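Input sequence (338 aa), recorded before submission:
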Amino acid sequence: MPQTQASTSSSSYSPWMLSLRAKALRTAASVAIGLQHYAAPAAPSPTTTEWIDATLGDRQGKNLIRLDIYHPDKPNGGKAIEGKGRPGMIVFHGGGFVIGNGTDDARWATAANDQLGAVVIAVSYRLAPEIPFPIPVEDCASSILHVSSNASRYGIDPSQLLIAGFSAGGNLAFASYHLLHFASNWKYSLPAPPPPIRGIVGFYPLLDYTRTREDKRETSIKPEFALPASLTHLFDTSYLPPGTDLRDPRVSPGIAPDEMIDRLPPVHLVLCEYDMLCSEGLDFKGRLEKREKVVSCGVVEGEKHGWDRPPPLTPKPTVAVEYAEALSEVKKWLQAGS
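Predicted structure, token format:
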């Protein structure tokens, strides 16, 4: 059944236990991602790393958001945008809003470097349960504004900005876009107007929190391949404070009002057939089509959520295929506006 508020009684974890479990998960995830990054071909390290200010919401501060920046190997990359600065892609990592960091998506960054000549900026937003909703959304919106206002320093054409997100990061990609373009709905005062975004790529994003995890799990094609309830319960309890309005577009960006959906740029979705989030991704695709938005979608057959993450340690061949397909769509968006 649809829900309108996060439960105030569903959590079986005290705040200190949530934090302890989150830290244990972060350690395990870091080891797993690190091992996969060492597998041939090894994932690259960031070209540079810097810290930027959080400029929105009630938890603003200096040097709170980490940016890992991946520059193209070739200084003259981005030939599709000849005569201009490079495209810039801002990436939000996955991990249930609880684990992960920007370097998790190093292989995606490399693909965007190679195939688009893009400068990729991977964002490590602050994590729950220590930093719950809406602060991660605000951090991601802050990072978009920062990259736009500093585009020339990064070698980016500010008219060629893109956003990508994986899982929770896919949620944040759409949610932060809604925040920036309808800031007054939540009484935000933006330090600068929202920049033009040429498109959003969402990998297996969580788009609708009003559907319960139990419903998503039970209605998926292969419920036995869904993320375990203990893990999703930890994620959701950590991220959503009691009483959170689950229809808030910053929580459930896929069911935002039509006026918000109509403002979205072109969208490409990559979904996994056995993922409990696949159906809401397809529903979102259908809604975008109904609103006559530019949208494309690939469904990775026979795969579950996060198929491009460990295990196994060596990425599956389909990962490179789907990354290339997504970047092919991105290239169309860039060429259409050049």
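Checked by second reader. The two ends are 46 Å apart (CA to CA).
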